[in-house]
Amino acid sequence: MNLTKHWAAQLEDYVIDLAWSPDGTRLAAASASGPVSIYAAADGAKQHELPGHTDGTNCLGWQPRSSSQLSALDSPLVLATGGQDGAVKFWDAAAGQHVTTAELGSAWVEHLGWRPSGGSVSSRGSDVAGVADPGPGSASPATLFAAAGKSLFALRPDGSVAHTFKPAPKTISALAWQPAGGCAAVAYFGGVCLWDADDFVAQKEFPYGNGIHALVWSPDNKWLVSGNQDPSVHLWIPEEDVELHMSGYEGKVKHLSFDCTSHWLATAGGRDACVWDCSGAGPEGREPSMFPHDAPICAVAFQNTHGLLASASTDGVVQLWSPERKQPLRATVRMPAAATKLVWSPDDTQLAIGSQKGLVYVLKSEA
């Protein structure tokens, strides 16, 4: 297994967010100072530099596209960005043009999440969705959740506000959509709330007596996992009201990633990528696999449809692992600066790395 440099680019500041377009043809990279660059995936050519947000950009996200939209030439590539100006901006990424802005107040917009487009309302499961079944094949409407301070908003792609939620008790610290699209999990100091995607009511609330830094769902929708300040990992099975707790980390757990089968959960709160077996009844009582680095881990990311795990540490090292192997380490590369983001391309052939020094690297993964 080899990781080889495909192309690289330089931003003017820290790479605060990074994401591939749904069709894999473009990579969007946000500089903390504000500008957002759109690169061609094939060769790294800069297609557009969007002005982003004057006071600084915090996050970005591509609107998901269905399989029919991916093949349609006239289907727009919509990119949303959130900034320190309290706004969410929508962009036509193919044209490099600003489309509209949603002004949400004075608090920084720190978390964005598009409702997944993969399933119909009728496929979500009544226990968690909590909504009436409108019939087979009903498409999920395009909805973007945006979190700013204690406030959460549901936005339409035209920038209009579909719903303003009841403020959270504390600042919202993480946002993660259920893969089926039935609800979004929103975390704050003291707990997690599941907000329904259609009628915007609270489906369930899970108290947790500490700070939460990260949230992730398993792809099969079974597990909701938080990475915590205390430091620990907490797991819920929302449909069954089951909770598990895994502690013993060196530091705050800020990095989480599930593999595509929902079997392996990668977590990081120290110098090891700690990988739990979440099959069956879950990881409680099982020993995790520990994949070591020489410095604290700053990012973990499983591939989208394959089994490789990428992990990065603050000394610039990026490693690839196969958790199911007796000798799991597959490749090691050393980058010039610590990673801020690791993001696999939709087809898993390229790994994009954003760095603290503003460098964006795209590496090819080759067997």
TrEMBL record:
Per its UniProt record, what SUPFAM superfamilies does this chain match? WD40 repeat-like
Database matches in Pfam families = ANAPC4_WD40 (PF12894), WD40 (PF00400)
Q: Which UniProt keywords apply?
A: Repeat, WD repeat
Q: Where are the WD repeats?
A: 79-101, 212-236, 290-331
Q: Which domain of life is it from?
A: Bacteria
Q: What InterPro entries does UniProt report for this protein, alphabetically?
A: Apc4-like_WD40_dom (IPR024977), WD40/YVTN_repeat-like_dom_sf (IPR015943), WD40_repeat_dom_sf (IPR036322), WD40_rpt (IPR001680)
- Positions of the Anaphase-promoting complex subunit 4-like WD40 domain: 9-63
Q: What is this protein called?
A: WD-40 repeat protein
Source organism (scientific name): Opitutus terrae (strain DSM 11246 / JCM 15787 / PB90-1)
